[in-house]
Amino acid sequence: MMSELPDMRASDAERERVAEALREAVAEGRLTMEEFEERLEAAYKARTHGDLEPLVRDLPAPAAAVSLTKPAGATAPVQQDWADRIGGPASGTVAIGVMGGFQRRGAWTVPRSFTAFTFWGGGEIDLREARFEDGEIVIRCIAIMGGMQITVPPDLDVHVGGIGIMGGFDDKASGPGTPGSPRVRVTGFAFWGGVGVERKVTREERRRLREERREQRRLDREERRRPLE
């Protein structure tokens, strides 16, 4: 059902309800993994009801019937407990790749201020399984004739801004996160290079969704066989 007020600002709870509907759709095989990741990213970046509604419009009930006005007695989907991932000593404040590369991924702790530098090289910064020293994080990227790729979870609060000269910063991943999410600001400078930021689910989450989709298909086959039996 279309909202009568498509320009009404979307709430965090409404973004989460749409995200949950998308997870159910990919588990049932109605969306490919690429479609799911694209729509999930758009859901967390949505600012109004009009931004959210097209993401589930072509899905059958109950996904297409996601109400953007929380019904009485309804509960929000379970959200990540960010408090468990904030705090603790940082793993390091600097990463350098000169005619080579660096990686920061897995269960590392992102410092309040992190500086990454590449010269004729590349760097990978993955925050999907990371902890955060504080609720406010600044990542400064300096890429000279090189590049960096930053991967963040779909529900992280991310703001991308930087200066590019014959290079650039990809700010498509900028957008709010779920309640309690750390705020990560990506800034810096790129010369003959680039800094890309993308929202992406973890391999474990991708695997879980695939397993759910296989299980749903198995249940559907059993359901279809019952009338014949």
Automatic annotation (TrEMBL):
Coiled coil: none annotated. Residues 8-60 form the DUF1707 domain. It holds the Pfam family DUF1707. It comes from the Bacteria. Residues 202-229 are annotated as: Disordered. InterPro entries: DUF1707_SHOCT-like (IPR012551). PANTHER family: DUF1707 DOMAIN-CONTAINING PROTEIN, MEMBRANE PROTEIN-RELATED. This is DUF1707 domain-containing protein.
